[in-house]
Amino acid sequence: MAEFMLAAAGFVLAVEAVGLIRILKGPGDADRVMATQLLGTGGIAALLLLAQAMDSPAAVDVALTLGLLAAFVSIAFVFGIAQSRTGGA
Amino acid sequence: MALDIFLGLLVLGLAVWIVSTRDTLAAAVEFVAFGLVVTLVWVRLAAPDVALTEAALGSGLTGGLLLGASTRLARAETATSGERHGAVLRLSAAGVCALISAAIAALVILLPEPAPTLAPEVAANIAATGLENPLPAVLMAYRAIDTLLEVVVLLLALLAMWSLAPDHLWSGLPWRPDAVGRDGVLTFVAQLLAPVGILVGIHIFWIGSVAPGGEFQGATILAAMWILVTMAGLRDMPPMSRRWLRVVLVIGPAVFFAIGLAGFAIAGSFLGYPPSYAKQLILTIEIPLTLSIAAALALLIAGPPERAAQ
Amino acid sequence: MRLLLDGLTILAVGAGAFFFLAGTVGLLRFPDTLSRLHALTKADNLGLGLIVLGLLFQAEGLFAALKLIGVWLLTLLAGATVTQLFARAARNGGSPE
């Protein structure tokens, strides 16, 4: 079971990495900011799987923190795009 | 094993990508992504405390700071993006970086087996601190003075940032995002996410004595939620001249320092704790400390004053 | 019983991973930002939900299970709303409202 979880975590990460490459190349800032959203969801999935596989319940707390901070950073970035388009603060 | 190799390659690839990105906003986004991957690396290394700190401070908070920097630089960016540094400068920079990386790699590889560590001593004496998680025991009991100085440095950084304000704006308000709709998605997010975030922040702080967590991580979550609320326009940042703001900022280190001085009388040394009520003392320090750190971090992200106070 | 729970976990986690894959395929193949956002949010969050479901079968105790569900709900909420903001930013060419 633990090996399966690790493999699943690795698979999710690999899939996210491919998506990340596509996003970070993508034209436009709005595309790149999606990277935080993508890695946020994928990272949380991988963390929850790792928590089970490594028998480390603290990783669930890390996933919780990640979710909150990823949301915060994404929103801040959206504002950042708006600000830099209109010429800065 | 394959997972670890893959994570390592991903981290290296992202690092190379970030260094070669020209646009600062894109680089800031990639830095946040990098931080998320490093969080996973820390979990794989069985260091959930560090993973928590990386997710909150290294990735989230620093991402917010870098973003603020990149938007402020956006005006100047078009002027400098045309600059090309000479080959000599770039080669020497590359050489120095490579040298440092090689030195660190050599140190890690050449560590004696088993690596020198104080962990057994920490575990042997931890009962005297009243805590169960060794990390806060080190941070708040064995090396409390480091933590005290860290918080003081945070306040000094805040002062340094405030000193960037022009004289007539001293005691003013930080920049406010303009054109914020009163209805809409952002208000909904802030109203729903902020209370949840505050609960999570308090939980992470509180659980720090027995499980990964602690005041820095909890404070970062609280600061992020406060910034979220100001971004949504639900509340405004307080002007920096408000007395209560300054009290909140100072009370953490002040209590820490006071208990440290009291340690001379009670336990015979600066920041010494008597074992019978060590945990209560540590808690008394940690609660105002969390508030101070949260306020300082939120103000650091908000930036120097740019609007005059009414 | 143990075997049944393990089997359900493998099924759910496998389905979740498949949806993550579907999300990335959509990301790679869809033509513009808004449709990529679609693929990103919907597929990935569904994948996360299925993975959480699979992990619920392995969870020890009510509190652990509630925490897992809490993480999923939080991600769902944050993802849905933040994507709205992204979409507006992408469509309006910068302004988030």
List its traits.
A: 89 residues; mainly alpha; 0% strand; flat; B: 310 residues; two-stranded antiparallel sheet; 11 helices; 70% helix; globular
What does this structure look like?
The complex is a heterotrimer of chains A (89), B (310) and C (97). Chain A is mainly alpha-helical and 89 residues long. Chain A has one domain. Chain A is 87% helix and 0% strand. Chain A contains 3 helices and no strands. In chain A, helix 1 packs antiparallel against helix 2 and helix 2 (29-53) packs antiparallel against helix 3. Chain A is flat, with a radius of gyration of 16 Å. The mean pLDDT of chain A is 81. Chain B is mostly helical and 310 residues long. Chain B has 3 domains: 1-75; 84-116; 121-310, no CATH class. Chain B contains 11 helices and 2 strands. A two-stranded antiparallel sheet of chain B has the order 1-2. In chain B, helix 3 runs parallel beside helix 11 (278-302). Chain B is globular and about 60 Å long. Chain B starts with a helix and ends with a strand. The model of chain B has no long low-confidence stretch (mean pLDDT 83). By secondary structure, chain C is an all-alpha fold. Chain C has one domain (2-92). Helix content of chain C is 86%, strand content 0%. Chain C has helices spanning 2-29, 33-56, 62-92. In chain C, helix 1 (2-29) runs antiparallel to helix 2 and helix 2 packs antiparallel against helix 3 (62-92). Classes of the chains: A mainly alpha (89), B mainly alpha (310), C mainly alpha (97). Chains in contact: A-B, A-C, B-C. Chains B and C meet through helix 8 of B and helix 3 of C.
